[in-house]
UniProtKB/TrEMBL annotation:
The keyword Transferase applies. This is Aminotransferase. The gene is tyrB. Its cofactor is pyridoxal 5'-phosphate. Its EC number is 2.6.1.-. Homodimer. It comes from Sterolibacterium denitrificans.
Length: 398
């Protein structure tokens, strides 16, 4: 049966973990995968999460099936994070939200539903994008192409090219947009640019799919929601995937959500019924724990405040590592301008390191980065940053 099965390629990012884990050097550093580590190099278990989990464990809840769409208290909390507590969109009942298995699960449910809704459409992802975007939408049966995004010369967004690219797309084209903290480049649009982009989507009748995997990691929960809120004001229909893997440090619990903005309450009910059908034939209904914990935190004012503070702590730690890495590269006499490190947002930086330089970092120093030159700043800490700065300085000087 399996004699002719070929070995599938590894995920370029998750595959790095395996190589890192197998490395026996004690000073090795994993700047590959996008995970937030604290200054001790550990994945934090947030205090707000601990408190919610303790209360949940003490209550010993029964483990019945959840509704297909997940926990209502969770889905409502997600909507408020995306659109604001007093959103008119929410008051009008235009949004449906379903709990999903992480941001990936939300993208998958959205992609499968879109394939039923718009079977002849194409999907456009940013150039470059998170590799799984392409794989997910291709797996749902869509042809996937790219729209212009990153400009290696400025280390920012080539907005003119982006606008021109989107301006050529046919009505009904699905465009996947990173709502904030673009992965892999760290280069985001500004508010005025988002406004223009919303206008283009409206004029060309594109179908926006916002991927919100890092809400709170750039400027804060509210500020980072500028894209979904501008789209909300436009009157357009669109999709949003949310992930709480990073913002709640709940990676393995698989907590995410898919929200779909429709024209009205009655339409939302019909769309929800179709999305539920997609879920039922995938995994029936989501697991209980992660969503219950996130809902408990978001719906309790004291825990919510604690989470806001802990999220700010994570955001500030990444910022501090950005400034520190830049300063340390300058101290080491690196001529190349690395000031973009402090301008890019979120966990990642597209460093401009070549594949050969990344290879040297791994071979000579045990420092793992993605071959595209993407590094995860959240893996730096006060103990490994000098070593990393030394190594980068060495490889860029030749
Ligand atoms: N979208 C982007 C842009 C991401 O970087 C990630 C990272 O994990 C995801 C989606 C998936 O999130 P999750 O881990 O919750 O599935
Ligand atoms: O880009 C990253 O590193 C994170 C984690 O298939 C990740 O988003 C990477 C690859 C993948 C799933 C998650």
């Amino acid at each position: 049966l399996f004699a002719a099965v070929e070995m599938a390629p590894r995920d370029p990012i998750l595959g790095l973990n395996e190589a890192y884990n197998a490395d026996t050097r004690s000073n090795k550093v994993n700047l590959g995968v996008g995970v937030f580590f604290d200054d001790d190099g550990k994945i934090p278990l947030l205090r707000a999460v601990q408190a919610a989990e303790k209360a949940r464990l003490a209550a010993m809840p029964a483990r019945g099936y959840q509704p297909i769409e997940g926990l209502a208290a969770y889905n409502q909390a997600v909507q408020k994070l995306l659109f604001g507590a007093d959103s008119q969109l929410l008051a009008a009942g235009r949004v449906l939200t379903v709990e999903a298995l992480g941001g990936t699960g939300a993208l998958k449910v959205g992609a499968d539903y879109l394939k039923r809704l718009l079977p002849g459409s194409k999907v456009y992802i940013s150039d470059p994008s998170w590799e799984n975007h392409r794989a997910l939408f291709e797996a749902a049966g869509f042809p996937v192409e790219t729209y212009p995004y990153y400009d290696a010369a400025t280390r920012g967004v080539n907005f003119a090219a982006l606008k021109a690219g989107l301006g050529e797309l046919p009505a009904g084209a699905i465009i996947v947009l990173h709502a904030c903290c673009h992965n892999p480049t760290g280069a985001d649009l500004g508010v005025a640019q988002w406004r223009e982009l919303v206008d283009i989507c409206a004029a060309r009748r594109l179908v926006p799919f916002l991927d919100m995997a890092y809400q709170g990691f750039a400027d804060g929960v509210e500020a980072d929601a500028v894209a979904p809120r501008l789209f909300a004001d436009s009157g357009l229909s669109f999709f949003v995937s949310s992930s709480f893997s990073k913002s709640f440090s709940l990676y393995g619990e698989r907590v995410g959500a898919l929200s779909i903005v429709t024209a009205g309450k009655e339409e939302a009910a019909r769309v929800l019924s179709q999305v539920k059908r997609v879920i039922r034939t995938n995994y029936s209904n989501p697991p209980t724990h992660g969503g219950a914990v996130v809902a408990a935190v978001l719906n309790d004012p004291a825990l919510r405040q604690q989470w806001d503070e802990e999220l700010a702590g994570m955001r500030e730690r990444i910022r501090a590592m950005r400034s520190s890495l830049l300063a340390k590269l300058q101290e080491r006499g690196v001529q190349q301008d690395f000031s973009f490190i402090t301008q890019q947002r979120g966990m990642f930086s597209y460093t401009g390191l070549t594949a050969a330089q990344v290879e040297r970092l791994k071979d000579e120093f045990g420092i793992y980065a993605v071959s595209t030159g993407r590094i995860c700043l959240a893996a730096l800490n006060t103990r490994n940053i000098d070593y990393v700065a030394d190594a980068i300085a060495t490889v860029v000087k030749g």
